[in-house]
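Students often ask why we bother encoding 3D structure as a string. The short answer is that it lets us treat folding as translation between two languages. Here is a chain of 115 residues written in the first language.
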Amino acid sequence: MVRKLKTAKTGANQMDIIKQAQAMQQEMLKIQEELKGKEVEASVGGGAVVVKANGQKEVLSISILEETIKDAVSDKEMLEDLVLSAVKEAMRQAEELSEKEMSRVTGGMNIPGLF
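And here it is in the second language, the structure alphabet:
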């Protein structure tokens, strides 16, 4: 009889864990959807290049000052470096935002492949 109770209790615990995991999954899907609407902005070179991205690490826009474009005629590599730096910073900020939002659900646990 004791053995059956343990089995029933273990089964109930497993069901609770499954329900919790499903609730967590739903919350994560909701947060991922919300991240589409959240933006980060990275500016480099004193505003010469500005990159906007959303919380899902999608680049939304790249703005380059007219003066920077004129300077790029003689220094193409400088413009490429500025754009690359701004994109990398925007992606870093988007990653940080995503991790912060997801940690609300995961309690700070690092779950591989989650985001």
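Translate back mentally: Residues 1-5 have pLDDT under 50 and may be disordered. Keep this in mind for the problem set.
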